[in-house]
């Protein structure tokens, strides 16, 4: 039991308690504030409100035997009503599944469920108590009426391989969702449930899962760390209230950590950091803390340091908590039991004292309340500030985004995970602590969506997946109101009514049906036909929101850089492939599917090689499509190099009817950013990397022909404006060389001519689109290639060969060389004065750190994407496996004519 809780209960600190209550092992076993806690000294009368719900036997964190022995409350624990009266540590499920039945002759345990609502109460009472504790726990979780204040919508974000899935699997086990800890390396994790994820040992789909911890409901979203799935992270981050950032204690703050960190910054998501893999050789907690400052710009608040490690022990075994001044040791195979003992004199204690002093000092800079407490109650002694006060101060500054609590451990060795779960409860916000969501109306006005359970329903579909049995599963976050099962809702993005068949709470691949999803919560809707990722859902009778097309804001999706062709194995396969692609598109808005006008081939484009590889995998294996997939190719862009003005007449016969329109198009290349800024200031519209202008003021009816003149086209200026814009967008989507989208061009459409009833909005759009195509052909079309900013981390002595390779055959430009841990003077001064980071040499991981510390450097370069294909293996051989790299697209670059000819030949075949 943490000191803080003892102090809370006793209302006295260890030193001021007149008797030995805080050190009495019998009295201080319980961390569940439910139960009557009686202090042996008798003069402390804790005024702890009774926990609403007696923790049932099955939620004990120890196995049956251990529980009985360690709790020392055997009599109370297994009493007649089968309620575990005093438990250790937390509300974990007991491994002894059948115990309630065995101990009570098969009768149902009596639970105090008076506070649970009628329908749920009935379900609980009718439960078959022969079910496993696992199932029981899930049901219990679902049925407990968690208040919003006890809900945490949390994401786990990090660089690939930092240990997100490994940590999450432990969380699920300790929370009672799984009986066994899943292992990424064995491919049996709960969170990575797609076959493709298990095969590769990585997370692709951010699976959402719900579990209970210390009387709170945690909705947890695991997110992928690979750069190809940045959109998946973005989707998750915008519905989160808080996040746990996992850092690899050996690698420190890595490139993708910086990307996801900045994504979380954009949505002001409070975070805690967990420095994982502290058992590995080369792990350095202090260095990683400093990098949180230098690379992420955040203010780290160290709340734990690695515990003492004997040279003989096999890796990290303990953590010192500097808030409670306890040593936490994990001493069983699954790490479910934590032994907490007060820190005793020695190097770790001395370091912890330094850490606590720094923590209180840091908090005092950021929070006035702690300053008052420091002087008034702790009499200026850092060690006398109560743990509970420190925790509350940490919570306040974390919620305000002023600081990030930092914890450490080794998830793979089952060390340090429960404190991370505690930190989620203690330091991260509930939906009530977050600002209102902002929605937009179609007239541009904004509305605050306050969290009100009785308010109008406003929900965001943040993810769609396809389940072979249940069909489309739409993950939603309800921002206001209550989403009921079997209700009718309205999708303001697709403008259509949808029927909610069922609502589910997800336990990764296991599910529980629920009657409603309340404001502030995350759940899954089954039965929606058209809803896609990013759509906004409201009540079907909310005419105001429907009329104004209320939108919670969509995610900006960067343009895809890779594509491949898909060829059905036979004509009968066309339909199933089309259906499968439709499903994939609904799930993943960063995928694009189109048909090549020349070859008639279906093409799919995506964010990276891995992204498309996964799509291929899912089409062939999950959807069982029989198709040949073409080679992965780069998605180039097209532009023009000169100006052109053309007048175009569109005159066609469609289904026996003549359709006509005419327009003028002026096209020119955009020279640079300044050119674009100038045009934007002059009122041009930006679409991707191009600018558009539509002028329908000089729209004229064609009057040369009496028949045409007599049949007015009756198209309003507004309709014409929209039709011209549609035509321009369609024209921009297809260049003249290889049908890649156009970029860096400025197009103006004017002089629209209408031909009576022969002109429809469709014919205007088609006319403008064709005109753009003709104009591009005349304006010296050219190909552009995706350019990447590449960061390569290598050892000092490998810089030469890596740079030589980059600037040689790979056509790259090196733009900088940095130390991998930029400990500049500013950071160094802060580390010494304000930011506390323990010395690595004295710490667990640091014992090995000294041996391993070869200085690494980061090479920054701009390189064409085409030169980066297969770079991982090239870098591996250049650096003997030690180099790592990350890259992101920064735009499209010019190509030499030779190179352009080669690419055209490669793609067209001539
Ligand atoms: N030694 C050690 N290895 C760890 C630890 N945590 C995770 N690993 C290993 O690191 C590798 C990556 O772990 P994952 O949990 O898959 O990492 P992830 O962040 O989920 O990776 P992605 O899903 O690909 O983004 C696996 O081989 C784990 O066994 C740790 O604390 N210590």
Automatic annotation (TrEMBL):
The keyword Mitochondrion applies. Residues 149-432 form the Tr-type G domain. PROSITE patterns: G_TR_1 (PS00301), G_TR_2 (PS51722). GO terms for biological process: mitochondrial translation; ribosome disassembly. It is found in: Mitochondrion. SUPFAM superfamilies: EF-G C-terminal domain-like, P-loop containing nucleoside triphosphate hydrolases, Ribosomal protein S5 domain 2-like, Translation proteins. Coiled coil: none annotated. GO terms for molecular function: GTP binding; GTPase activity. The keyword Manganese does not apply. GTP binds at residues 158-165, 222-226, 276-279. InterPro entries: DUF7707, EF-G-like_DII, EFG2, EFG_II, EFG_III, EFG_III/V, EFG_V, EFG_V-like. It comes from the Eukaryota. HAMAP family: mEF_G_2. This is Ribosome-releasing factor 2, mitochondrial.
